[in-house]
Each structure stands twice: as C-alpha cells, then as structure tokens.
Sequence to fold (788 residues):
Amino acid sequence: MNVIPKSIEFNKVLNQVASFAVFSAGAEAILDLSPAWDLDSAQQLVAETEEARQLISQSPDFSVGGARDVRQQVERASLGQILYPNDLLDIQQTLSSARRVRSTLSSNREMSPLLWSIAKPIQTPPELADAISRSIDDQGNILDSASDELARIRRELRIFRDRVKDRLDSFLRSDSSRFLQEPILSQRGGRWVVPVQSNFKGKVPGIVHDQSASGATIWVEPLFVVNLNNKLAEIVLAEEQEVEKILYQLSNLVAEHGVAITLDVEVIARIDSITAKARYADATSSVCPRMVPRTGNTKDNSNPSGATVSLLQVRHPLIPVNDVVPINVVLDSSVHVVVLTGPNTGGKTVALKTIGLMVLMAQSGLHLPCEDATLSVFSQVFADIGDEQSIEQNLSTFSGHMTQVIQILEQADSESLVLLDELGAGTDPSEGSALARAILIKVRDYGCITFIATHYPELKLLANETEGVTNASVEFDLETLAPTYRLRIGLAGRSNAFAIAERLGLNASLLSTARAFMSETGLRAEDMLESMDKARRQAEEELEKAQQARERSESVESQVQERLKRIDLERLRVLQDARIQADNELEDFRREIRQLRRRIQSEGSSLDQIRAVEKLAKDFHRSRKKTEPSKGQPAKEGFEEGDKVWINTLQVEGEVLSVGTKEVQVQIGGLRTRAAIEDLELRERSDSVRSDLPRGSVTTRKSSVSSMELDIRGERVADALDRLDRFLDNAFLANAPFVRIIHGKGTGRLRQAVKDALRHHPHITHHEDGKDGEGGWGVTVARFVSGD
Fold:
C-alpha cells in the first residue's frame, strides 16, 4: 500500500474539502480518500468531479440533504436491539434522500453517466419507509395508525381518562372543594390527584402520593377514583407494551433490509464526497486537470519516465488567497530532475509541497487551483521535507533526513515522484555536498521525476552539466531585499549573500576578502549564475520588445480591418439606398401610368393611345434595367462553395462560402453575411462545379416563381393584394397573354378578394377558376386586354 507523505499536508486539504460535505458519512469518505495510482482510475475520479460541477451548475440545490449515517443503528437492529423512534426517523430520511438522489441522477443520466452508474445500485425498500411513515410522526411520536391494537387501546385510554377527569371535576365543584389548596387537577406517578390543605387531611379520604416542601399541601388520590386510576394505569401499561411491540417490529424490518440500507448509505456518502469535491473546486476557482498517459521510451535516458508535468499559475491551496503567489511548473520532456535553489524563506519548500499536493489532489479526483494543468499519473509519491530530527530515536537532523532518503532510494522507480528538501544539509558542507551529488545522479538514473531543493553551488554546476537535469530558482528582489516566491525553471538561483551584504552597507574590502575565501567551485558557480542571469535579463528585454511590436502590429491590423469593414458597410448602404430610391421612383411612375390609363379609358380614348402609353412605360422599364448590374440565374443544382452570386435584397455581388438547407453564407468584400437561398441569383459557377458539368450543359434554372404565376397562399389579404397589383403591372408590361394567381382554397376570403380586385382592374378583361389540372378553384386564371 502506498503511503502518502505527511510533510506534504494532504490531510489538511482533505479537511477543507470535507467541510463541503452534507453529512458525516460523506465527510468520512473524503477524509479516507486515497489517490488512484493508475491512469484509468485517476481519469475517472476527475471526470466524476467534473460531472458533479456541471450538475450543480444546472441544479444548485442538488445534494444528499436529510441523509444520516445510520450504519450503527442498522448494526444494533441486526443484533436484536430495539431502535428508538428518532433512530427510525433517521433511517427513513436517509432512504428518502437516497431515493431522491437516484431519481435526480436517473433524469440526468446522459449528462452525468458516471454519477448515474454510482447511484444506480440504490435500492430503497419501500415497505420499510412506508411502515416508518405510518407509525412515527416527524416529532418521533408513535401514531395511532401504527397498529389496530394501539388505536383500540388509545381510544379506551381516552375514555377512562375522561371519566376520571369528569369525576374529579365534579369534586372540584362540590362543597368539598373548600378543603383544597386550589381547585386544580394534577398527576403523581401517573395517577390523578388533588391538592389538599394539610390541616384538612382527613376531610378528603384517599391515598396521599406527595407533599409540598413546606408541608402545607398534600396531593391526595380520592378513594372514589382509585379504581378508575387503576384501570387507567392498566391501559397505559398496555399502550407502552404495544408501542414497544411496534418498535420491535420496525427494528426487525430494519434488520431484514440492513444490507440494502448500508449500501444506500455508502452510495450516497460517495456521491456526497464527489459533490463536496465539486463545491470545493468552485469555491477555489479550480480547473479540471488533464490526466495523460506517459510518452516516450522509459529506457531512454533523454526521457526515462515519459511523465508530463505542466502546472500554470498554480496556487498552494493552504495559503490564503490574498497571500499566495502563483507559480508555473512546466517540465521539458528531456528533463526529469530539477535542482531548486534560492535564498532562505524564498519559497523553495512551498514550491515542493505545492507540486506534491497537486499530484495527490489530481489523482484523488480533486480539481486544481490553477489556470491549466496536465499531469501524468505517478505510482508513488515520496517526500523528505522539513525537520526530521527525532529525540526519541536519538537522531540528528542529518540522520533523520538520511534515513528518509535511504527509504526513498530503496522504493523509488521510473514512475515515482520524489521531493527532497535541503538534500545533504545538517552535516559538514563538503561531505553533505558530495552525498547530495551522488544521490542526484542516482535518482537521475532511476528516471523518476525529482525536485531537489538545495543551497550547494556544486549541485547547481552538476545540474547545468548533466543530461536530464536542470536548474530552477525562486526569485529574489535585490531592490526590496525580499523574495518574490516566483519559480523559474531552467535558471539557477543565487544565494545573494554578497549582494545583500553590499546593499546593507558592508565594507567593500570585507566583501573582497570574503570573495577570496570562496572555493573555486563556488566562484565558478557564481560566475555561471551571473552570466546566466545577464543572459536571462537580455532575453526578457528582447521578448518584451517583440511582444510590444506584436501588440502594435495587431492593433494596426485591427484598425485596418475595422476601417475596411466600415467602408464595405457604407458601400452596401449607398447601394441599398439607391435601389430603394429607384424602386420608389418606378412605383411612382407605375402609379401615374395606372391613373392615366384609367382616365384614358373613362374618356373613351382609342386603343392606339393606350398602347402608346404602355410603350412609354416599357421604354422606361428597359432603360432602368440597363442601369442595374447584370444578374445571373438561380443555380440548377443548388449553390456550391465558390459560386459568384447576386444578392437581390442588397443589390451586390458576393461569393458563396458555405451552403445550408435554407441559408447561404456569402463573402461580400471584407464582410460575411447570411442570405436566404431564394434571394440569390447565380452570377458565375465556381471552377470545381463547372469542371463537373457535362459538355453543353446549362448552368441556369427557371425562377422558382414564373413571370406568369403568382403564389400568395397563406398571406394576409392586404399584403397579397399589394403583391397582386405589382405582379399584374409587370406581367402587362411584359405582354403576357394571361397569368395564374395561386391563392389556395382555405376559408375563401383571399380567393374572393382576388376575384374582386381582378373584376375592377383596368388590364384584366376576363378571369376564371383553374381547370382540373391547374389547381381548380384554388387558382384563378386572368387574361389581359392585349390578349383578346
């Protein structure tokens, strides 16, 4: 069994998560949580939490509210013990909660298949829940409906209680009431009594049951109610026996269904633990980690573990939000050992614990407090963090750490995560450094992902020169002389002791002397770090300049695109305004022609004069058509990507980008828009479509509405008549001999309105219903004057 290192403080995270559980069994399930050590299980755990987050976002009230951990009550019932009413109520509420959870997840099984598979085994025994509901009320009182015998006993009990009270009420109203301390009834030992003044003790014959502290009052059971009280006591005893019998029967029923009840408790406890994880994730703004398989060849030293570790802006979950500093932990595929250096209190230990916590949390199904997370699954997590000094075992700090490291080296393999804090510390620096370097090479050879925190400069040099090993550091601000707690992988940290001393005012000659005392290795390490730090600053400056240039370029590009978009919109607006104006002018002209035609007819002018006016209208129509851009025809086989089309409503040309069932996406200059298929005319086929057409084929098709046919079915009468009037004018100007108006049968209102309009129209000489093959009386055929 894998042991979770206490130094990572995973148990404290579990305590936080457990606070989001609804009932004790759910919290217990969280506190007992153990990470999954294989990929499939870890992926399922994080997916369960993701499902719960989605479910809660849609149903915020979803929970296992009302549930109790009744496993002890079930065990007592199984041993033959009688359960109390409150115990039985807890069982009933738990069964009700389990039934409600199962029903909710069944309704959401498509959205939450994993949660539904967990809840599916719930088997709430309905006879037990019904029996408890029938026998016990919400306050824990046994109901008369619990059994026929109890109902009979309680009826008898009420009768005898009323008889006793009636006899005593009569006594209170008699002359003997003057012997009483006050005219009230009371009970002592379950028997009805009256308060008698002690100096009148012999005036009220009966049995004395009690006496006041002062002795002034005694409670007497009058002789005339003794037999009634005896009978009443017998009935009360029978009631108690019947209640006990009912509770015994219910307890036996609980024992019979003990396995199902226990299963229900365990299932809803697991669901409660998952929803607690989800609520914790929401409260901490966490993300769902991607659990990915290992890659590469584990025998290849360039990537021996094949593990992925990528944590962006990750926050330690136990540090308050206002105090925590997010860090990035992203390992290159060629690196599996990281040497972490930097000043004391700079955050090295926190970084190690954060990495360990993220791995354990993810493999336990918890979402992570970061912006993005991708992790492989580790088969074991080892950590040597903190002071391992033991007084009981007579171990020094060094001995305690070395004992832990030896155990880790005996158990670690290529799929392990190893965290070592202050490796080799607590002993002679030269010996400690040598041991630390040897251990680093050993874990490098194992191939496990390892993070080592150290102050030894020799380890920094070794990390810089060894394949598969890299340096990392926590930043230190020399201006404020304080750590920033930010982690930088790939760059070793400096101790900054000389720099800090110089900033604080230490004499320059003393600093020079101190530097002379440094070992050659230490000087090499400091020179290397200074060179790397200078290169890092230069790279950061260049990167910042490149980012600024990119932002300026993107800003200019955005401005240009916006300007082109405004130009295209303005062009479309001008074209549309011109089209509307031309249409209005044409409509005005047509209206004048109609008025003139009516006047000529009313004045009896000759047919030649009428035709002269019509010729004038035709000439105007042709001259207007010449000023409009040429249009194509609708596509015979439908539109295809790349077709050039004419958009009637906008009076512009565009190119088809994609074709839907009713709409087409069209590119118009720098703009994209959607247009109805019936609003488009084909201007030019795309090359891909033309190449597929047989030689001599025609790329046009007839309009969906012929120039000799108008379909106005389903339109309002006013709109239909307006279209009819324009249609008849166009057909008349085109010298059509007749037209067909499709108005449908329906209620007949539209048909009658069309007939009336045709009857008074100056162009129409005759109209009639369509023939059998033309649509019958759902169609009207109208003939023009020129057709006679």
Notes: The radius of gyration is 47 Å. The mean pLDDT is 81. Residues 220 and 295 are 93 Å apart (CA to CA).
